[in-house]
Amino acid sequence: MADISQPHPENPVYVIGGGPGGLSAAAALRAQGVRAVVLERSDSIGASWRQHYDRLRLHTTRRLSSLPGLTMPRSFGRWVARDNVIRYLERYADFHDLEIVTGVEISRIDRAPAGDGWLLHGSGGRELTGSAVVIATGYNHTPHLPDWPGLDTFPGKFLHAADYRNAAPYAGQDVLVVGVGNTGAEIAVDLVEGGAARVRLAVRTAPCILRRTTLGWSAQRSGVLFRRLPASLVDRLSRPLAKLATPDLSAQGMPRPSTGPRVRAKEGTLPVLDMGLVNAVRHGHVEPVAAVASFERGENSGSGDVVLADGSRLSPQTVIAATGYRTALEPLVGHLGVLNARGLPVSHGRRTPTATPGLYFTGYTTPVSGALRELALNAKKIAKAIVRERARAKSSATKTPADASTNDRAKAAAAQ
Ligand SMILES: Cc1cc2nc3c(=O)[nH]c(=O)nc-3n(C[C@H](O)[C@H](O)[C@H](O)COP(=O)(O)OP(=O)(O)OC[C@H]3O[C@@H](n4cnc5c(N)ncnc54)[C@H](O)[C@@H]3O)c2cc1C
């Protein structure tokens, strides 16, 4: 059987996903002289950013969010607006002259039958063989909804945060936002500012709320500075400062969390960077309520009932579920044994899973130092690892005949 750890040098490296992760990996490979082809399922790059809500700005700084080889222009300001992120990604692809094929969705990856890398099954019956594959389909790939009883019969308006653009359709409405991650927190504030009549926020786990900056120092910088220290130690040391920086909202129904931001991040939940939530809760514009338990048709209220974990009932006109996303990697690579119980890759960045050399993953972690920063670092590491692997394969391919003839000579000498 052919050895798939020996990549076929003519096959390009395929990069699945034309977001910041895929584009930066392709640019880093190109800088190392490796042909990389980006495969993007939508009709343009940066698809995730095009779908985000209108008011979104990076909560990581411009300087710590640039991708390798091209910094974001100063004119974008410190906190870059969504449209400028998209503009930057377009410019980035042009600047690095990246090879990008849009409209191709990869549904499954298998070992190539000839043993020369990986076979990608794409939409339209395409089959592509790559010497290596970088998987960058995004941590926020598929909207996730909890398995709430009664949701299918709920007559009110219901949407996932992925479909929220701005507050205009909800002006004058009673809205319940479910989930207090960065997205839920920001949508709640956006609704208040956009004229919703009442905004309630269903909280299952008390959030870790951090100021985006303290005296000009960004929360991200602290994340970078302390990223190598044990999470529990950082949380213990930063607790007094966190108490000073963010007021206690227990009286308003949002108690302080029992675990700190670093421990939470390790579990996959990033801290909430305050974009107005604290003030909105303090002034009663956003009302925290208990977690959602179930939905009911609500015979007496036209909009249906939402039953909360504390037994109370609400009848909002609209429910917006800011309940996160799934990576949805299972159909793509689940059969290769490279995912853990949470559906996340067992190896990340420059490391490939032992049984699947040449298969790289980027963008499936939640670093407090900033996801874009991490993608940028990974891109360079992955490119170097692929170049190293190619050099190793090449040298063992050129060594083999010589070794064989040395062996032959040794055998012949032994036979005499
Ligand atoms: C609301 C929000 C705000 C964020 N703000 C910040 C921030 O301020 N700072 C920060 O550092 N990070 C932030 N992040 C996190 C992260 O940096 C971004 O999500 C970033 O876009 C991740 O890049 P990515 O390339 O890994 O994934 P994505 O940007 O999601 O790109 C994945 C791409 O892959 C494509 N794709 C998916 N599946 C397939 C397939 N099977 N075949 C072909 N193509 C496929 C998608 O269409 C998409 O274009 C934010 C995330 C969210 C959701």
Short description:
The protein has 416 residues and is an alpha/beta fold. Helix content is 30%, strand content 20%. The strands form 7 sheets. Strands 3-2-1-7-22 form a 5-stranded parallel sheet, covered by helices on one side. A 5-stranded parallel sheet has the order 9-20-10-11-16.
CATH C-level name of the largest domain: Alpha Beta
- Tell me the number of strands: 22
Tally of structural domains: 2
Oligomerization: single chain
Major sheet details: 5 strands, parallel
Strand order across the largest sheet:
3-2-1-7-22
Strand content: 15-25%
Hetero compounds: flavin-adenine dinucleotide
Helix content bin: 25-40%
User: Which CATH-level-2 architecture of the largest domain?
Assistant: 3-Layer(bba) Sandwich
Q: Output the radius of gyration.
A: 25 Å
- For this structure, what is the CATH homologous superfamily of the largest domain? FAD/NAD(P)-binding domain
Low-confidence stretches: 1-7, 410-416
Shape field: globular
Describe this structure in words.
There is one protein chain. The protein has 416 residues and is α/β, with parallel strands linked by helices. It has two domains: 13-141 and 327-397, FAD/NAD(P)-binding domain (3-Layer(bba) Sandwich); 144-324, 3-Layer(bba) Sandwich (FAD/NAD(P)-binding domain), CATH 3.50.50. It is built from ten helices and 22 strands. The protein has helices spanning 20-31, 47-51, 82-95, 182-193, 219-225, 231-245, 261-266, 277-282, 330-333, 371-415; strands at 13-16, 36-40, 99-102, 106-111, 118-122, 127-130, 132-135, 142-143, 157-160, 174-178, 198-203, 209-211, 213-214, 217-218, 272-274, 286-290, 292-296, 305-308, 313-314, 318-321, 325-326, 359-361. The protein has a five-stranded parallel sheet, covered by helices on one side. Strands 9-20-10-11-16 form a five-stranded parallel sheet. α1 (20-31) packs across α10. It is globular, with a radius of gyration of 25 Å. It binds flavin-adenine dinucleotide. Residues 16-22, 39-42, 47-49, 52, 56, 58-60, 65, 105-106, 136-138, 140-141, 183, 363, 370-372, 375 line the site of flavin-adenine dinucleotide.
